[in-house]
Amino acid sequence: MNVIDIVSLTKDYGNSRGIFNLTYSVKKGEVFGFLGPNGSGKTTTIRQLLGFIHPDKGECFINGLNCSFKASLIQKDLGYLPGEIAFFDDMKGTDFIEFIAKMKGIADLSKADELTKIFDLDANIQIKKMSKGTKQKIGIVCAFMGDNDVYILDEPTSGLDPLMQNIFIDMILKEKKKGKTILMSSHIFEEVEKTCDRVAIIKQGRLVAIDSVENIKNSKKKTFTVTFSNEAQLEEFAKEYNVKSQNMKVKIEIIGSIDKFIKDLSKFSIENLEEEKGTLEEVFMHYYGGEQND
Amino acid sequence: MINYTLLKRELKANYKIILIFIAVLAMYTSVIVWMYGAFVADIGNQNNSLFQMMEQMPELANMFGFSLQSTDYTSFLSSYLYGMIMLIFPLIYIIIMSNKLMTRYIDKGSMAYLLATPNSRKKIAATQMLFYILSTTSILILAGLFIIIESAIKYPGTIDIGKFLLLHFGCLSFHIMLCGIFFAISCSFSESKKTLGLCSSIGIGFYLIDMLSNMGSSLDCLKFLTIFSLFDSNGLLNYEPLSIIFIFLMLLISSISFGLGIYQFSRRDLSI
Questions:
Q1: Which strands form A57-62's sheet, in the order they lie side by side?
Q2: What mean pLDDT, rounded, does chain B reach?
Q3: How far away is chain A from the Cα of B72, in angstroms, using its nearest Cα?
Q4: Residue A292 lies in a domain
Q5: How far apart are CA A184 and CA A176, in angstroms?
Q6: What is the nearest CA distance from B268 to chain A, expressed in angstroms?
Q7: How far is CA B58 from CA A52, A159, B53, in A?
Q8: Are A58 and A166 found together in one domain?
Q9: Would you call A106 an interface residue with chain B, using a CB distance cutoff of 8 Å?
Q10: A221 pairs with which residues across the strands?
Q11: CB under 8 Å to A154, separation ≥6 — which residues?
């Protein structure tokens, strides 16, 4: 059963900006990651799911309701976390949470209180005096306090410190156990890796990959630069792995498990081991094992 | 059809501004009411400074609607209050609120939080419209009450209540018309500077044309170029049918504008 259906969704802003013929679905109980570089169309897609903007072509549905025309109906059972923090500056955090609860028709604030505790949030200060991370926590509380069945989160851990990011990931996993459906956009690969079942990757408005996280993990390429202290060992290693050496260094690309590589390395005298963090482009594209045309 | 939580929030966020405008109008109306006594007492006295100003700068006086045509109290109020003060001060409030009630939420992105709720866009817009109308009406009703009470205290029995109420209602309708037009603008734009720029230009621009049209017979035709002409204070004091028709026209324009605003907001793209 599909909770979210995106069908040939197109929104053209000119200059190749926008989204083009996007199609994917999110099943019930699934945590679905929506990955892409900045400007690739993640927020545009999410805005159309929320009914904030209307598609040029195609449609999207949540629980069978058309997002463009039945937005307020869909909102009865949706928790949303916007990508950009924008609250009412003239309120305190606690007042804002209560206000949103009333607007959403949430009478029971126990979940809001629970979330406030979990995230160690001091909401009783003026919003305009809050740090970015604190504001993000307010957003998280507002999104999840309704205990809805569907959640749409746009870059949910933006502004959170690593400790809070882990707390957030734990919370998502808990919600998932309860059978909630979650669509989460991100450009942080690690966060998606830990929580999502499936991932869609978007680039320049087009879907370039949609697969389970498991498959992606197994085909992700890592690039290492190893510095040897012994030239003879360097040559031996270079031959075995069929790579060129330069200045006592070799560059190795490993797809999948690095276990064999590490075990092999342990036989040699190694001065330095560095992992090259590939550009997002490379990470996304090379997972396929092939080149993509731009 | 409206959301009371939002309505209450707007009241809480804006009550200070509303009180300030009520206080300012209360102050100005008492000054003008008090002035009448001095004006009438000095009516034959050439040393009357007001009289001197009129003589030396008749055009300036006419621009603001000040005139010495009659010493009737209600006409006096009409000239000295409803030529500038009762037009400009509520106008400033209406311009400020035009941005605050719709565009600002879109500009800042906080509209996302209002719409990520089971409230339709129509409901949100209608709630803001209601607040706009109620707050503007409250300011004007209180100002009117101040005038009536102050008049009753200082010059009992002098004010012509029927004429005054019609005059004041005409002024209120005029401001409701402005609310409608500015609300439609506010619903249509995503940037505060555009909404504020357009509303200020319209409000102040039309007022300037109105002032110019009062200056002399040759400029009289300018009255067709400004919506301020729909509030015909002199006509209302004389119960002229055309000026009463204008009141209906202003309320009609306001209804259509509000409707257009709500419709526009319901269907447009919001990058929030």
A1: A17-27, A2-14, A57-62, A65-66
A2: 91
A3: 48
A4: no
A5: 12
A6: 7
A7: 56, 65, 8
A8: yes
A9: no
A10: A255
A11: A42, A43, A46, A81, A82, A83, A185
Examine the domain organization and report whether A144 and A245 are in the same domain: no
Yes or no, beta carbons of A104 and B117 under 8 Å apart: yes
Chain A residue at shortest CA distance from B4? A103
Q: Does B92 touch chain A (CB under 8 A)?
A: no
> Half-sphere exposure (CA, 13 Å, Cβ side) for A97?
31
Type of residue at B26: A
Cβ-Cβ contacts under 8 Å, B109 against chain A: 82, 84, 86
B13, B109, B119 member nearest A72 (Cβ): B119
Residue A202: give its domain's CATH number: 3.40.50.300
Instruction: Say if A294 falls within a structural domain.
Output: no
Distance from CA of B135 to the nearest CA of A (A): 19
pLDDT digits (tens, 9 = 90+) for B110-150: 999 999 999 999 999 999 999 999 999 999 999 999 999 99
Ranges A26-40, A107-121, A252-266, B93-107: which has the least confidence: A252-266
In degrees, rounded to 5, the angle at the alpha carbon of residue B124 between the alpha carbons of residues B254 and A63 is 140
CB contact under 8 A, A72 and B121: yes
Residue B44: is it exposed, middle or buried by C-beta count within 10 angstroms (0-12/13-18/19+)? exposed
Which segment of B13-27, B56-70, B173-187, B256-270 scores lowest on mean pLDDT?
Answer: B56-70
- C-beta of residue B141 within 8 angstroms of C-beta of residue A125: no
**How far is Cα A21 from Cα A186, in angstroms, rounded to an integer?**
20
Could you read off the pLDDT of A22-37 as tens digits, one per residue? 999 999 999 999 988 8
Domain boundary among A180, A213, A246: A213
Looking at residue A126, what DSSP letter applies?
B
